[in-house]
Each structure stands twice: as C-alpha cells, then as structure tokens.
Amino acid sequence: GAVVSQHPSWVICKSGTSVKIECRSLDFQATTMFWYRQFPKQSLMLMATSNEGSKATYEQGVEKDKFLINHASLTLSTLTVTSAHPEDSSFYICSARDYRARHYGYTFGSGTRLTVV
Amino acid sequence: GESVGLHLPTLSVQEGDNSIINCAYSNSASDYFIWYKQESGKGPQFIIDIRSNMDKRQGQRVTVLLNKTVKHLSLQIAATQPGDSAVYFCAEKTGNTGKLIFGQGTTLQVKP
Questions:
Q1: Which A-chain residues 22-41 have CB contacts (< 8 A) with chain B?
Q2: pLDDT tens column, B20-50
Q3: Dist. CA B74–CA A48, nearest whole Å
Q4: Where are chain B's structural domains?
C-alpha cells in the first residue's frame, strides 16, 4: 500500500531557530498533502493544505509566515517552523492523498515530535 | 485551524466485550467518513470508512454506522482485545479540496 515517510521523527531545537520537517510519498505521486498539529491528549488540527506547484492554503488562525510550506515536487512537501518558540512544541503530522487508492487514499506519516527549549 | 481542542474522553471496557465509540461530525455536506486508530507517538492508522450514501459498513471485527439526520457516526468493535487500546478518531472529508477534519477522539482502554 501507499507509504508516507516523515522526517525527522523527533527534533529538539533552541528557541528562535527554525526547523524543517519533510513529508515524502514513497510509492505514489501526491498532488495534495495536508499538515496537522496535535497537542497532547487532543485531536489533530488541520494547519494547511499543500498543493504541488502552488501556494499552500492555510486554515484560519494559522500563521503562514511562521509555518512555511513548500510542495516543490509530487513526492515531497516540507513544513518549516520559523523562529520557533516553546508554544510551538507539538506533534506534527503530514498526510498525502494517493488518488489511485480505493478509500480516497489518505495516508499519514508517522509524525514529528518537536520540542522547543 | 479546525479541530476540537478538548481533552479526550475515555471508554474503558473488559477484554472480550464489544466497544462502541461515538462521534458527532460538524458538516452536513461531508460526503465521506473515516475512523482512525492512533497509538501513542504514531500517526493515525486507517480502520474503516463509509460514504455518505450508506448507513452501515462492516469490516473485520469493526462496524461503522452513519446517521446523517443527527450527524452522528459510531464505531463498533467486536470482542475487544488489549491490542485495541488506543485513541480513536473519526474524520470527515469536506469541501472540494478534500481536506479531512478530525473529530474529538476517544481513548479506548481494554482491561484484561
């Protein structure tokens, strides 16, 4: 089945620095990818929809200048958390759609645990 | 972003019993629904899905029921096992972009 690889699985960074998270579709092309964040014991919150070759669409309340999304190829989307602060510490998860699949093809990465110190 | 920022309710069941997990969704125009299982520190894992033109779908040990009148979704797990212990989320596909919006989630604890 479809596989989405997310890297790194965890990262610790200093406050004020930037962190990049990668999301790759390994065996299919993904024109659309989604980025979520999840705080402990809470649900997944959609941050943005990433479209290959165009600008991402951000959900209301998500700062696009802080969470930079790039979807430069059909197999790779990146999320960069700029000038990270402790409140950005969270679990970030990407999802990609494999349009060949029966169930609309939503496949999730394994997530990235970001800790800002 | 869209979600419900509340702490997850917990359902505790005895091993071997049936579990029923409920979910209220928000958009009457949503046309597709998925149940996911999430274990600690991992991404969501697909369990079962249902389209809006159906009201019931069965898989292996799992059944999803959809009531569009009251915008309610349920997941039934038969003969619950310790390996079923996890957090369960419903998700609805909404809009032309196909984005998935997740519901609140429920923690399932299976007692041996």
A1: 32, 34, 36-37, 39, 41
A2: 999 999 899 999 999 999 999 999 999 999 9
A3: 27
A4: 4-111
